[in-house]
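## retry 2 of 3
previous attempt timed out at serialization; input unchanged, resubmitting
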Amino acid sequence: MQFDEHGTTANFFWKIQADDAATELRNHLVEEFQDEDARYAYADSFLNTRVAAQIKALREQRGLTQQALAEAVGTQQGGISRLENVNYSSWKTETLRKLARALGVRLHISFETFSDLLDDVETFERRSLERATFAEEMSKNKLIAQKRARSATHLWHRDQPATTGRMMGGETKHRTNVNPQVDVSSAAWLWDRGCDHGAEQSITRRN
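## retry succeeded, writing output
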């Protein structure tokens, strides 16, 4: 087998092997989950592993030591060490809330299906456990809002006449190339309006 200098062929076959392994694991779990006790035992074990691993992943991503996180939560370093142990199972919602705040994330608790569990097992890796900081995610959301606002402004101009006249005190006032200050909610509405407008034009052309 020939490999190019970038290892593309090697990466391709590595991905196939990884996909085969994931498929084999999924099939094994589907069979094992037919037993009710087995699937709930596996779900509990995976939950403990995931929570403990994510606490450690987030702590290290933030550059915090166990001692620093313990001080932020109001406990001892040994307490954080226990929480990062995958065999720990005595989780308390209040403790998790404190950890979430100290790590700059929100706590999310929900009931899920066993198919979701299979997906979680397949994608379980450190990268899937890390989360952006509040400043990072707000910066990203700001860019999204600005992009939508620019798109909405473009749609607004497209739907307006080139020049609009108004009678004021016997005089006609003209507005050309008005640049409206579009807020996020208006941007979202105009974006939807633009999509509807495009759909209408497509239907008209087909007819």
